[in-house]
Fold these 2 entries.
Entry 1:
Amino acid sequence: MPPTPAIPAATRAAIEECWRCHAACMETVRHCLAGGGGPATSARIVTLLDCADMCRTAADTMSRGSPHFRVACAACAELCRAGAAECRAVPDDERMQACADACDRCARSCGVMAG
């Protein structure tokens, strides 16, 4: 069997951003459900969970060299922008702002990968 080609550095960096954003969103969901982050509205929780799921999907498609990674990355960038907006709506909460920053970084990275 031929060796698996190495993952390019830019792709590896995007995968890492996806996993960081996934973790940030999951931590922030927990934070919101514990009473932080302003009202734990269903819209906020669903958006953060959608973002986390799409980050995982985008990371997986890039990791396995799927020919469809651009589609996943485009969706990831869109959901990360939505996650960032939800978190920025609570400006006085450090955890929410950290999540928004992670979402912004992932949105940029996946936007580049989406082409």
Entry 2:
Amino acid sequence: TDPLPIVTDGRAGRAAFTYDGELTVGIDAGAKTALAELANALATEHISLVLEAGDLLIIDNHRAVHGRSPFRAQFDGTDRWLQRTFVIESLDGIEDRRDHIITTEFTATRPH
């Protein structure tokens, strides 16, 4: 597939940022240098946040880079539980929907 840009024209004249530090690779020396500088800037400027039971965190994926810290799952009922929802401006162009409900099915995977 063709490489995709990290920064594109977003909504309301703002830049949109698409980046995954583990999956994004540069296609030439300049791109690799730029990604290394970006990774360094993110490591230097990031903010850590600890959520407690009952907390709600809302992130605008067009304005923030986010992730989670690693953890070892115990699968004993004490592991952290995250519930995710998506908010979009318009359902226009979404094929897998029924009226105003998006019908995409996500399957849970569990490590073996």
